[in-house]
Model the fold of this input.
Amino acid sequence: MAGSKNAEGGAGLDPMHQFEVHPIIELPSVAGIDTSFTNSSLWMVIAVGLIGSFMLAASSRTALVPGRLQLMGEMAYKFIADMIQENIGTEGMRYFPFIFSLFMFILFCNMLGMLPYSFTVTSHLIVTFALAATVFMLVTLVGFARHGIGFLKLFVPSGIPLVLMPLLVVIELISYLTRPVSLSVRLFGNMMAGHTMLKIFGGFVVGLSSAGLAPLAIAPFALMVAFTGLELLIAGLQAYVFTILTCIYLNEAIHMDH
Done:
């Protein structure tokens, strides 16, 4: 029992323990893939449920003088609509449902991860890569649907010497293909690093307090509070960065700007 308690205590202070995926409902594997319902799945469902509830509550009772929920919903709508108009143009509004859903999902997952005993879905590379890969496939499909084989001109920079063309085409192609990696790693890295830092400072506070050195715990506690505020800012900022890059990539596919 003592060993078990020590193990639990060690896990509680381990900064990486918070990122472990645990099955909640065991399900049989399909083609060698574990389909169990996990804590990660649970918090994604919670995020989607909260987004749906928020948008339904914000739009259920529209009034000339909006209430708080209606105002927040309208602000979220206008924020994404303005982002699309500025980066893609009016034509980009057909992709508003996808871009809005993407922004809200990342934002809610990031914010939910700040709650005690929660799980940060976006701190897992497989989740952020799945989102980035979806964006990549959409952009590529839109590009070929609108321009056909002419979409490949995206990889041919204009106004360069013919001798440098093969090298630059390879560079442009590699840059395009690595977009899902850069998108996913940016979000995953920021969320994982921030939460790890918070856990480390929290461990310092608990450790010093348990050792009877509570006055020395004031400094790490103050840093933890400051980092919490910073993490809240980063949670919103990373949702914005992911979404605006999606808009930029779509604009490139639609208008072939280079």
In short: The chain has eight helices and two strands. The helical segments are 2-13, 39-60, 68-87, 96-112, 125-147, 165-177, 179-210, 218-255. The longest strand covers residues 23-25.
